[in-house]
Inverse folding.
């Protein structure tokens, strides 16, 4: 179902690739596949980077992001705040990622599970980092899983404390504790890096 | 495969303003067919289905009623409502005019 | 890391400061604002958060390849967007003729886009479109190019929608409401204000 039209005789319509999120989400809600494709291109990479971080590898992140977009297409008609489509997409991909982690871990408590240290984890890597993002990335990799996950949900995906608690199925008080510890470690690492 | 269905599909494609034929069979039946390995691409986009399916025009013949359904995409060069009527009239003509024992459904699923 | 030691925070805690930042430092807390220790901690905290928020953006660059996007687009179904059946009348009572609501929305989008300088977003048909002759109202969201006079653009959109609905459908359109939600500078991806 394409929507091709001959160009108008006067001004052209603004290119859809430049449209704001609310316009695109509205069109996609009404069945405009091209608008949805622009959303996929615009937000997909960030969602993939996010999924990769939560899943610890990019092997599964492609699948997860695809699943997220297919779910998003179905659920778009229920989205009330169309301008907030980016945060909404981030929450969907976050949900899907955490579902994967849960399935993989076989009901292990996500806040207690601590995977083997990736190479980026050693404090030396933080000190060697060339940019603040690299430094933070290394510092984040050094955090226990639960702390890292809470931090990403809060500061990257924009979740509330209650939202994180619901997402990870842990009490809000636990979320507060994990975030407090993450905050302290990250601030210390980053100040030391400076 | 159904000869009548195919013949009607060819006729409908020839109506000025008609650009696409979509699979007119209801979605649940397509899902069941796909699950049974019949329909091939039946869960993809509607356009894919149209390319791969033979029975694009749905013809259901009951004891007392024949129901014909077609779903089309039209260009915006002619009035969509007018094209819709023209498609109906052409199909009706194949059966020798209107009849109470027959329903003809024409649905326009895209314009332009 | 003496500056992060909570003893330097004049009785405040990092948790408290984090919540204070979450509230956008509103209402201003004179005790926190007057404490040098708190100010240092707030700056460090803001730095970590800013870097966190930008963390994935750096990783997200150039990863939207076409095959990946095509897989997503190929997996979504348009059937979900057909909406209501809008009748087309015929003298033969055995004729069941209709336009899908999705097709009519596509028509409305194309009509609005064709006037130049405008991109249509969400579109709603208010009223019972399934009853022939029932008056309905069309609501569209639109983003308008920077430099367009908004009332003129809205008027052109209304006229184009009346014209095309009149040409293709039997809908009795009582009003076309145009809501301009965004003014967009040419060539820059639009941003929806929060």
């Amino acid at each position: 179902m394409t929507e091709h039209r001959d160009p108008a005789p006067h001004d052209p319509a603004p290119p859809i690739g430049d449209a704001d999120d609310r316009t695109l989400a509205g069109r996609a809600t009404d069945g405009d596949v091209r608008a949805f494709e622009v959303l996929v291109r615009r937000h997909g990479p960030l969602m993939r980077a996010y999924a990769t971080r939560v899943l610890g590898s990019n092997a599964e992140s492609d699948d997860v992001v695809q699943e997220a977009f297919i779910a998003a297409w179905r659920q778009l008609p229920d989205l009330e705040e169309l301008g907030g489509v980016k945060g909404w997409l981030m929450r969907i991909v976050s949900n899907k990622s955490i579902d994967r982690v849960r399935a993989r871990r076989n009901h292990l408590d996500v806040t207690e599970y601590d995977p083997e240290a990736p190479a980026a984890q050693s404090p030396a890597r933080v000190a060697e980092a060339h940019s603040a993002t690299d430094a933070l990335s290394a510092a984040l990799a050094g955090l226990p899983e639960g702390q890292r996950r809470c931090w990403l949900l809060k500061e990257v995906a924009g979740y509330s404390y209650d939202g994180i608690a619901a997402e990870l199925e842990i009490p809000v008080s636990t979320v507060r504790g994990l975030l407090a510890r993450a905050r302290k470690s990250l601030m210390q690492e980053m100040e030391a890096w400076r | 495969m159904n000869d009548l269905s195919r013949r009607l599909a060819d006729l409908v494609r020839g109506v000025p303003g008609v650009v696409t034929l979509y699979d007119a069979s209801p979605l649940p039946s397509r899902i069941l067919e796909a699950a049974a390995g019949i329909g091939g691409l039946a869960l993809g986009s509607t356009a894919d289905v149209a390319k791969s399916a033979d029975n694009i025009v749905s013809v259901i013949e009951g004891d007392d009623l024949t129901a014909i359904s077609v779903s089309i995409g039209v260009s915006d060069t002619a009035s969509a409502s007018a094209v819709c009527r023209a498609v109906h009239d052409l199909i009706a003509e194949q059966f020798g005019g209107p009849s109470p024992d027959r329903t003809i459904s024409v649905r326009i699923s895209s314009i332009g | 890391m003496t500056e992060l030691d909570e003893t330097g925070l004049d009785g405040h805690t990092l948790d408290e400061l984090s919540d204070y930042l979450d509230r956008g430092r509103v209402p201003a807390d004179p005790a926190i604002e007057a404490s040098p220790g708190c100010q240092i901690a707030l700056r460090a905290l803001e730095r970590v958060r800013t870097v966190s928020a930008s963390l994935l953006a750096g990783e997200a660059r150039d990863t939207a390849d076409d095959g990946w996007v095509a897989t997503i687009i190929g997996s979504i179904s348009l059937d979900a967007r057909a909406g209501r059946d809008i009748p087309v009348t015929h003298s033969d009572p055995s004729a069941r003729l209709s336009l899908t609501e999705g097709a009519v929305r596509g028509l409305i989008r194309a009509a609005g886009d064709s006037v130049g300088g405008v991109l249509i977003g969400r579109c709603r048909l208010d009223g019972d479109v399934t009853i022939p002759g029932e008056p309905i109202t069309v609501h569209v969201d639109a983003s308008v190019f920077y430099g367009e006079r908004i009332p003129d653009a809205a008027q052109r959109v209304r006229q184009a929608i009346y014209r095309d609905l009149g040409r293709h459908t039997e809908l009795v359109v009582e009003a076309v409401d145009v809501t301009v939600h965004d003014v967009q500078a040419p060539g820059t991806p639009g941003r929806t204000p929060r």
